Amino acid sequence: MTTTVPTPAITMLPYQRQGEIDYARLDFDPHKLVLKPEAMDQEQPIHAILSLLASRFTNFGQRPDTFLSSNTIICYDPRDLNVRVSPDVYLAFGVDTQAIRQRKLYLPWEVGKSPDWVLEIGSASTGREDVGRKRDLYAHIGVPEYWRFHPTEESDYHGAKLAGDRLVSGEYEPIELTVAPDGLLKGYSDLLKLSLCWDAGWPRFYDPATGTYLESWQEVWDAREAAEAQAAVEQAGRLAAEARIRQLQAELRRRQTER
Q: What pTM was estimated for this model as a whole?
């Protein structure tokens, strides 16, 4: 079963709230997601990645110091909150999750840092931007790892099915990709201590420490249902056996009384 493991965070950064946000002056609504044309193509891999990261690092959203989100707003210019970016998936360790959600925006100067891990899913409308402007932007605001994942067999949008960058001295350097014996393309994340894998357009995470792939929510759910069903069968068997024993004991007492 997928388990929560210690995150790189040791202590939570103090959230430094800096005045009220005038939401009326924003040219977007932080309460509403603006869906891209290819949202349905991206939806399933995004949900798969979110579920795996949530179970691994956030205890399904219960950790107060690990923020995981999708398609919400990161503002990166304190002078103008309309200057923003909205990653498909991003993760931050050692931050005040509750305070971030109360503000409805991820403000690095209040949070204490930029997100640690960002991933974009390739699409026709955003692919060029993912490998150009966004890559430069994430390096500029100090995101330590930036990943791109392509959800189909074609790799035209990003120029690669899978790619990752690691921030070194303010610039991104490509993360080496390998093809494992099982045939999957993999890239290792120093931050997550996991390999992100491309499996025929489907995202998976591999744990080198255990030599296993992380289980999805569906796999965890199926295993739990199977265990519960087996437990129910065993319980029914025990109850039937106990009832039979009581029946035999009653029969024995009756025969002893008749003697």
A: 0.80
